[in-house]
Amino acid sequence: MESPERSRTVMMDDHNNDPDEHRDDRMVQALVALVLTAVAIGGAIDLYLDAPDTWLSAHVLVELTLMSVSAGLAIYLWRQWRVAAAGLERSRAAVQASAAERDAWRARAESALDGLGSAIDEQFERWALTPTEREVAFALLRGAGHKQIAGATGRSERTVRQHAVAVYQKSGLGGRAELAAFFLEGLMRPRA
Is the distance from CB of 161 to CB of 146 less than 8 angstroms? Predict the structure, then answer.
């Protein structure tokens, strides 16, 4: 069963690497900037073709205002898109660095984690947990809530809660915190 954290990471990676989505965003941005630029240029052409007698007429002032606002918005949007693109790249780099760090840690700790997983499974056997109770207990140790476990396993939340209670009863532990502490308490020793 894939962990909720891994599912989120995979979905986020898939979302970030979708070239069609980024191309569509760039096309919309370019279209908006093009329309605003066209309004500004169109207003300038219209003013030239109108050849007004005076520059203080309402018609001229309205067109100059529209041209200025359109040009200003086009410039503002272009700048904001550049800032957002730079921020997005920094975020992607940070996510990739974090994923690389996570993967490196997992690789370094893989044998220890395998040993811990085996030791946990052996303890579950000593407690005589059913396969379903083991599945729920492992999910609880990973930090999943009843609702998450129910969604991942296709069971009702009530059924998952009943399995969790059976795990606590068979183990003689008082709940999720005691279950986690039973297996992880000795792992958090500071180095001498």
Answer: yes
Class of CATH domain 127-185: mainly alpha
- Average pLDDT of span 16-41: 73
pTM of the model: 0.46
Q: Are 1 and 152 in contact (CB under 8 A)?
A: yes
- Which residues are CB-neighbours of 43 under 8 A, at least 6 positions away? 63, 64, 66, 67, 70
Per the CB < 8 A criterion, the answer to whether 163 and 11 are in contact is no
The position carrying tokens 């529209």 is 66
C-alpha to C-alpha distance for 99 and 101, rounded to whole angstroms:
5
d(CA 156, CA 126): 27
Question: Would you list the domain boundaries of the chain?
Answer: 1-109, 127-185
Task: Read off the pLDDT of residues 117-161 as tens digits, 9 standing for 90 and up.
Answer: 888 999 999 999 999 999 999 999 989 999 999 999 999 999 999
